[in-house]
Every structure is written in structure tokens, then in C-alpha cells.
From TrEMBL:
Binds 1 [4Fe-4S] cluster. It catalyses: 2'-deoxyribonucleotide-(2'-deoxyribose 5'-phosphate)-2'-deoxyribonucleotide-DNA = a 3'-end 2'-deoxyribonucleotide-(2,3-dehydro-2,3-deoxyribose 5'-phosphate)-DNA + a 5'-end 5'-phospho-2'-deoxyribonucleoside-DNA + H(+). SUPFAM superfamilies: DNA-glycosylase (SSF48150). This is Endonuclease III. It is an enzyme of class 4 (lyase). It comes from the Bacteria. DNA repair enzyme that has both DNA N-glycosylase activity and AP-lyase activity. The DNA N-glycosylase activity releases various damaged pyrimidines from DNA by cleaving the N-glycosidic bond, leaving an AP (apurinic/apyrimidinic) site. The AP-lyase activity cleaves the phosphodiester bond 3' to the AP site by a beta-elimination, leaving a 3'-terminal unsaturated sugar and a product with a terminal 5'-phosphate. [4Fe-4S] cluster binds at residues 187, 194, 197, 203. The keyword Nuclease applies. Its cofactor is [4Fe-4S] cluster. Keywords: 4Fe-4S, DNA damage, DNA repair, DNA-binding, Endonuclease, Glycosidase, Hydrolase, Iron, Iron-sulfur, Lyase, Metal-binding, Nuclease. Its EC number is 4.2.99.18.
DNA sequence: CTCCCGATAT
DNA sequence: ATATCAGGAG
């Protein structure tokens, strides 16, 4: 995909009004950080089901750091990978208090130093909570970018760097959100809705696809 | 690379 | 019945 096509792609995404059904619910950067950690291999709806209970019990890192891991597990047990995630939440809360004054840090290196926070989660927090032009490559973006032909990088982390260089700067801040929503509701993993897709004329996957009809 | 691991969509 | 879901640690 060349520069002109990439520009056209994001101009179309910016002009299309998407209508998300569910997104992570949060009220501050700490809640967003926790919600994104919980969202690994889980749907937003599943996460939104437990976070109100969790944040009512522990609205800040100081309180969450003092909770028993078992108590956190009990609250989030309806989410997959809940034992690992309960440990992450307690561990990252403890570190926020001990190393960052109880505040969510605003640099990639500091965020990644928190337990349970990898590059993808760090970049989501930087983008969504702090408005920075980062590209967090999750499973949706990894699939969408590969199909369209934006990048065929082998791993999400590699793709993240490729996209950051390849996407024009003025689209960078919102590109993350556009690609995610497109991946969730149009370019789905199973049965992609190519018949509703506004960018099929730019898509390598569509051109050699069997999903030409609905 | 494997493990983690419940809910939901298809 | 199985593929997938805002991944990260060991």
C-alpha cells in the first residue's frame, strides 16, 4: 500500500460515523489502565460487568494495593485468565503507590514496567487517557492491517512500529480507534462484512477474497 | 514457545 | 463444538 492509498484509507475512516455497541467503561486513567489489563482475551462487555464492582471497592491504587488478591479474584472471576489478572491488578497498584506517587505514569517505559502491562496496553493508555499519537496493535488491528495490506509484520510489536512510521502524522492519534472499530464491527475475524465495508477498493484481502458477497 | 481460562458468538 | 475476545509473563 502506498502513501496515497493510506491517506485515502484514513480519510474514509474519518468520514465514516461508527456506532460502537460496547466499549470499556472508565472514569480516570487508573480505571482505564485496570480495564485494559482485564480486557486481554476478553470482550469489553465481560470487563464492564465486573469493573463497577471492582472500582466501588477500590477506586484508587492505594485501596486496591491493600486488597487481598483472593478478594480481587472473586470480583473478576467471570473474566478469563482471572487469577493472573488479579495478581497484575494488585501488583500494578502497589507499584503505582510505591514508585509513581499513586498516579498512572505517562511514559511508555514507565507503563511497561508495571506488572501485567505490555507494549499494547501501555500504548492504549497513552493514546486514550493521555491523547498521545500511539498505535497499540491488538488482535483486531493485527488482523485488519494484514488484510488491507497496511502491514504484513509477523508480530503485533513489529507492526506497531511499522504503522507508526507508515501512517501520516495527522491520522496517527485517531488511527488506533478507527482500526479497532473497523476490526470489531466490519472486518471481523469470522465472517467479515465486506459488503458493508467502505474501503474494499483499497483492500488486498477483498480483491482475492471469497467474501465478496454477503 | 506455552500457559493462563470464562464468556460469548457462530 | 470451536473460534475468538482491547495480551502478558515465564
Amino acid at each position: 500500500m502506498n502513501r496515497t492509498q493510506i491517506t485515502e484509507l484514513f480519510e474514509i475512516f474519518e468520514s465514516v460515523r461508527s456506532n460502537p455497541r460496547s466499549e470499556l467503561v472508565y472514569h480516570n486513567s487508573f480505571e482505564l489502565l485496570c480495564a485494559v489489563v482485564l480486557s486481554a482475551q476478553a470482550t469489553d462487555a465481560s470487563v464492564n460487568k465486573v469493573t463497577p464492582v471492582l472500582f466501588a471497592r477500590a477506586p484508587d491504587p492505594q485501596t486496591m494495593a491493600r486488597m487481598e488478591t483472593a478478594a480481587i479474584e472473586e470480583i473478576i472471576s467471570s473474566i478469563g485468565l482471572y487469577r493472573a489478572k488479579a495478581g497484575y491488578l494488585k501488583g500494578l497498584s502497589e507499584k503505582l503507590v510505591s514508585d509513581f506517587g499513586g498516579e498512572v505514569p505517562q511514559s511508555e517505559n514507565e507503563l511497561v514496567s508495571l506488572p501485567g502491562v505490555g507494549l499494547k496496553t501501555a500504548r492504549v493508555v497513552l493514546n486514550v487517557a493521555f491523547g498521545r499519537p500511539t498505535i497499540a496493535v491488538d488482535t483486531h488491528i493485527f488482523r485488519v492491517a494484514d488484510r488491507i495490506g497496511l502491514s504484513h509484520a509477523k508480530t503485533p510489536n513489529q507492526m506497531s512500529d511499522v504503522l507508526a512510521k507508515r501512517i501520516p502524522e495527522r491520522f496517527l492519534k485517531n488511527a488506533h480507534h478507527h482500526l479497532i472499530l473497523h476490526g470489531r464491527y466490519v472486518c471481523r475475524a469470522q465472517r467479515p462484512k465486506c459488503h458493508e465495508c467502505p474501503v474494499t477498493h483499497l483492500c488486498a484481502f477483498f480483491k482475492k477474497s471469497k467474501y465478496v458477497t454477503k
